[in-house]
Amino acid sequence: MNKSDLVRSIAEKTDSTLRDSEAMLKAFTETVVDAVAKGQKVSLVGFGSFDVVKRKARTGRNPATGAKIQIKARKVPKFTAGKEFRNTVE
Question: Against a cut of 0.85, is the pTM above it?
Fold first, then answer.
């Protein structure tokens, strides 16, 4: 399912227009991204949670040359599926 399929599905389930559904989806994703970028955790009970994880600096290898390289520490976004979501997928 791509973005347009998702927008179409939301429109059908909420009896709204495609434009309104796309605006709702955009508002949701922007809100989640902004909150996670600020270091906040976004939890949707039953669906899952969005969070920031700090990765430590480490030594890696260049796959082309085999040379060792230093990989810097950084923050990455993480999604963890909720119990209902996991159970539905199983």
Answer: no
